[in-house]
Design a protein that fits this description.
The protein is mainly alpha-helical. It is built from twelve helices and no strands.
């Protein structure tokens, strides 16, 4: 149990590095995501093929996963766009609003009851982001991209969970990322026409950061999460992943000294978001306690 808990925390900590590496890579956000998808999807095809974790998937499911993959690709493009337009901290603060959009879209997609508590907590996060948006105008483009990233992630994750239940995690992730690569490749000429750049081929430093982003923060983090989930409850997993934006912002403060560049309004907004996360954690703890008590009874 302790080993699984450590594996999960390492996975979340590694995920927190994605923003740091995104800022270090000098490619524009579209090309950054394209190279990340190329490295990650090829690695997963090879890894899961030789470990026997892939299975046959129907053509209709491949098409659907390609659509989900396109949403995921756009999520990453807007996430790294937010980092480049603002900074890592602002992008991750906006990323934390994914819970609100999940609570908003999940009942519509899955036709289930709205969880009003999660929705209200999500609105608290939106209020924190609004304060930063209102009083830090230099970050507005980055914030809009960050919120778009959260919307796209919420929708793609809802569909991802549906396919995981049907196909399993390894096939779903492999076909989803492959679909993301194919769909992003098709729209890349239009993207580069709208956002032209002379820097298309990564230099040595960018290749090193891209390999770290793909192999360590994606493939390794996924493998560690998969191992941990087998031994930990859904409660523990959800609780731990709430810490991802916090880890990422702390890393941004340490690596880039972003805390020295942010105004007091960022910290006011972040404090409101932190309160929402704490309340959510307390709720999860109470729910887990009731479940344990029910099992004992």
């Amino acid at each position: 149990m302790k080993k699984a808990f450590l594996q999960l925390h390492i996975a979340v900590f590694l995920a927190g590095f994605t923003g740091i590496l995104g800022k270090l890579i000098t490619l524009n956000e579209g090309l950054l995501v394209w190279y990340r998808l190329l490295i990650t999807s090829v690695t997963m095809w090879v890894l899961f093929h030789f470990t026997g974790k892939l299975r046959k998937v129907s053509r209709i499911d491949i098409l659907k996963l390609t659509g989900v993959g396109f949403l995921s690709a756009m999520h990453w493009v807007t996430f790294y766009g937010s980092i480049k337009e603002a900074n890592v901290s602002v992008a991750l603060v906006c990323f934390s609003s994914v819970g609100f959009f999940t609570a908003l879209f999940e009942p519509l997609i899955l036709r289930k009851k709205i969880n009003w508590t999660e929705l209200l907590l999500g609105l608290l996060v939106i209020a924190g982001i609004y304060i930063i948006f209102q009083f830090d105008p230099k970050y507005r483009t980055g914030i809009l991209l960050g919120i778009s990233c959260a919307v796209l992630l919420a929708i793609s994750m809802i569909w991802f969970k549906i396919f995981v239940g049907k196909l399993g995690s390894e096939p779903t992730l492999t076909y989803q990322l492959s679909g993301a690569l194919v769909s992003l490749t098709l729209v890349m000429p239009i993207y580069l026409y709208q956002f032209p750049t002379n820097y298309i081929i990564p230099d040595f430093n960018d290749w090193m950061w891209l390999l770290g982003l793909s192999w360590v923060c994606s493939v390794l983090a996924f493998q560690l999460t998969g191992l941990a989930i087998k031994k930990l409850s859904a409660f523990t997993v959800n609780l731990t992943f709430n810490l991802e934006p916090v880890y990422g912002i702390i890393l941004a403060f340490v690596v880039f000294k972003e805390n020295e560049l942010l105004s007091k309004w960022f910290f006011v907004g972040f404090a409101i978001i932190a309160v929402s996360l704490v309340i959510h954690i307390i709720m999860l703890l109470k729910t887990e306690k009731k479940l344990i008590q029910h099992e004992r009874d």
